Amino acid sequence: MSKNCKGVKELFEEVIYQGFCTGCGACITGCPYIVTHEGRIILLDKCTVVEAECYEHCPRTYTDMNALSHEIFGVPFSDQEVGVTLDIYMARTKEREIGEKGQDGGTVTTLLALALQEGMIDLVVCTKMDEDKVPRGYLARSREELLQCAGTCYEASFALESYRSIPRHSTEKVGVVGLGCQLEALTKIRQYPPEKNVSPDNIKLTLGLFCGWALSPHVFHPYLRENYDVSRVVKFDIPHTPGYSFDVHTKSGIKSVPLDEIRPYINPACQYCWDMTAEFSDVSLGSAGSAFPGWNTVVTRTKVGADLMELVKRKGLLETQALPDGRLAHLKSVALKRKKEALKSIVGKTGNKNDLLYVGNLPQRMADRLLEIP
Q1: CA quadruple 363, 369, 371, 374: dihedral, nearest 10
Q2: Does residue 248 form part of some domain?
Q3: Is 123 helix (H, G, I), strand (E, B) or coil?
Q4: Contact between 22 and 30 (Cβ < 8 Å)
Q5: Handedness of CA 263, 269, 271, 275 (dihedral sign)
Q6: Which of 48, 112, 145, 218 could form a disulfide with 39 if both were Cys (CB 3.0 to 4.6 A apart)?
Q7: Kind and range of the H or E run holding 369
Q8: CB count, 10 Å around CB of 188?
Q9: What is the Cα–Cα distance from 110 to 99, expressed in whole angstroms?
Q10: For residues 356 and 354, what is the distance between their CA atoms, to the nearest angstrom?
Q11: Total of domains in the chain
């Protein structure tokens, strides 16, 4: 445990009740008293543990960004807009089956399927929608199971609950695909291994997903059930052209609503999140934008990630091309804006530029740039 660790009481007081919970799932399963119910974190009974893993591993309790960077990359925290990078380019799958089921370019599913096939990993911690289109953490051990998880749900899924369900003495090699907040939590788990869960040394691959925001399940899902026959929904999408909309693909067609209609259901915690590009991962991936529909932007960050990308290209499973300078500049600009807006929201909450809540130990150069200190 770190010297800053507290218990479940402080977790609820400092995170849950303050509206900072991202729905990552890191606190679940490690504690018998914490569960989810209809998209909320619920405390079943009083817990007297004063130094608890639920508090330690939460991505919205104090997080030493420099320590996390050393854990993953072996270097101090980067002051670059999108973090540590080895290469950035565009990619899309050449596998028709994945292309039909995947989101955008299908690159995530292609990479994970190959990693399973090559024995780099034995299972993938990911997200799968149930019959009611509620996203939940899931352990995929085959290509077929991965295909069941392809696509984006846009709701918080508490996916790390499934990681913590892996048997303590398991020797399976683990891959994880998740959002920035989930990978921050996972890196904290790596720093402070849980006593009763599988060792984080089993984690061999992490894929991070770009994220602008996630929807709160406890308010969005009632809206979804009220307006759609969820049993007929096959896919959700937010296309960039011709105009931003929320598209629900059903067995009989597509129903689109203006994106503004679902914005009220965005998790309030997202305004305090600054990691748009999932910086603590081996490979980060997202949509390549309206100019390149059907492509993914790919950011390789570690040797593990770079080696996997080279392998998938050698096997002819992905098509790649350079990310145009204008698109790269746009990505950096949006990522930087996200960081500035998040810290502005945080300072608005604390009233103090020296109190950035969970964002700890930033390089001074970055802090000055983001907070615009003269």
Answers
A1: 110
A2: no
A3: strand
A4: no
A5: negative
A6: 218
A7: helix 364-371
A8: 24
A9: 9
A10: 6
A11: 1
Report which of 274, 276, 242 is spatially closest to residue 259, judged by C-alpha positions: 242
Measured CA to CA, the distance from residue 336 to residue 355 in angstroms comes to 20
- In a domain, residue 250? The reply is no
Which structure tokens are listed for 22?
A: 């991202």
Distance CA 169, CA 187 (A): 20
Alpha-carbon distance of 274 to 313, in angstroms, equals 31
pTM over 0.90? The answer is yes
Flag whether 53 is in a domain: yes
DSSP string, 174-231: EEEEEEHHHHHHHHHHHHS--SSS--GGGEEEEEEE--S--B-HHHHHHHHHHHS-GG
Residue 103 placed within a domain:
yes
Tell me the pLDDT band of 374, cut-offs 50, 70 and 90. very low
Enclosing domain of residue 38: 8-217+265-371
**pLDDT level of residue 243 (50, 70, 90 thresholds):** low
Q: Is 115 helix (H, G, I), strand (E, B) or coil?
A: helix
**For the residues of 45-69, what is the DSSP string, one character each?**
S----SS-HHHHH-TTS-EEHHHHH
Calculate the alpha carbon distances from 327 to 30, 211, 276 in Å: 41, 17, 16
Structural contact between residues 146 and 140, judged by C-beta atoms closer than 8 angstroms = yes
φ, ψ (nearest 5 deg) of residue 316:
70, 30
Say which residue the tokens 């990993």 belong to: 121
Give the contacts of 29 (CB within 8 A, at least 6 positions apart). Answer: 161, 164, 165, 197
Instruction: Kindly report, residue by residue over 178-235, the tens digit of the pLDDT.
Output: 999 999 999 999 999 998 889 999 999 999 999 999 999 999 999 999 999 999 998 8
- Element at 93 (helix H, strand E): strand 87-93
What is d(CA 62, CA 317) in angstroms, rounded to the nearest whole number? 41
Closest among 143, 88, 86 to 110, alpha carbons compared: 143
Euclidean distance between CA atoms 51 and 72, whole angstroms: 25
Residue 238 is given by DSSP the state -
